[in-house]
Amino acid sequence: MRIGLLTEGGYPYLNGEATLWCDRLVRGLGQHEFDIYALSRSQRQEDEGWLPLPPQVSRVRTAPLWSAEDDGVVHGRRVRRRFAELYGELATALCAPATESSAHLADRFASALYGLAELAHEEGGLPTALRSETAVRALERACRAPGARRTARQARVPELLAVAAHLEGVLRPLSLDWYEDDGLGAVDLCHAASAGAAALPGLLARHFTGVPLLVTEYGVRLRTHYLTSGASDTAPAVRALLAAFHGRLATEVYRQAACVTAGNAHARRWQERCGADRATLRTVYSGMDAAPFAEVGEGPQGDPDTLVWVGRVEPAKDLISLLHAFAEIRQAEPRTRLRIIGTPDGAEGAAYLSHCKALASHLFPDEAEGRHAVGDNPVSFEETGEFPSLADAYASGAVAVLSSVVEGFPVGLVEAMFCGRATVSTEVGAVVEVIGGTGIVVPPRNPKALAEACVELLRDAERRERLGAAARARALELFTVEQNIAAFHGIYLEIVSRSPVRRVVLDEAGEPLPFAVPAEAHVPGRWADRSAHTIPSWAPGPPVRATPVPATEGAR
Prior knowledge:
alpha/beta, eight-stranded parallel β-sheet, 16 strands
């Protein structure tokens, strides 16, 4: 079948979100054909180029979210009035109080969104209109209307301008020329890599041509927006309006998707709270390459007196609690050592690492075994680049520790499981779901509980070996690339069999093209008996001619 893969700031670009799993998915499903529709986030991302693409990628179309190209269309009075009504309806859905029916607000938002897309399709000129004074005035009227939420009524002109500018950027996909019969209208399924701007083309493809939509989120985009906006110094009115917009957009994406997949139960609960229907939700774990960890996983246990922490150094990892826990561990097991292996994440991470090193020097003065030996600190700070491979970093200890206070899907924990290491982890994010009884889980920010769990495993070699073997078996069963690809292949077949795109495809000679629509679509009729100019009764529109498409195209 032909899949339209929709991305935002990721694949096929070298750097970005979801690049790795998208590449693995496309390469793993060589029996299908992929068209890539990518939204870039910066000029730098575009300049860095693409990953090498496999032969099953037949087309790549890109468009920038960081800039807009005007099509030169100037709206007349009638079209301006139509735009003002639609944009005003969209703004009203954002300013409505929480007491208004959520279903009614979802319908109003969707009606305005698709109305703006139809205006762009029929008249053009939407990018200019979204940046116009008409848009700002429509937003202001919605904020000042009786019954609007209090935070919206408090919005001043600079804040209204900021909101209008943000909406213009997010709504740029509405103006793209991707929704014709030779674009997304020609695919059998749209697969969006997130429920944000990447899913907008999928929504419009479903609206204009009936193509079913699959949405995958390994990090819930709406949750990310809530966390980042809450940590910024943005004005309350701007935060409230943008949160409402992204919430309404996520609700519409979840409502229209034939299936929504989450990377773990933690993300799935967020999707359900953000409006996803439980009946359409599936859990598909992130696929990781287990091969680099095979030798360590099948080999002997590491140093029985060493704890190892591997990851990105940042405050959310709570290494401070780990160091305080290690102080208690040393009292119970004086020979124990702790290896902290990782690279700081930006300037904040570097400052945090310096603080952790200072605390370690204070808690653990250099020790020597005898009067003539050189003192040594039981805590070492190393970078992953100092090891031949990431697996060797995990191999340096017998127990892997995760001390985070915030965690989504714990990739480092899965890597330790691939290496056959017994683990002690804090109960955050998807940790309990991932570990599944093959390790010890303790509350976050509790150094005493963390220390007691580590001491238990340090004193019991048989239990360490048993838990490590069970953890490796669980990781190989649930978290490999192979299971991820197999899961999506099954979902593709299921969606297309339930939601076939009814189209007649003709070849260059005007004859029906055999096998142009997958067998799963259950297309009735005998192709040999069809005339080139006959439209079957079950086809909603005229035939679509199969014409060669260039390998890569840029958006208008």
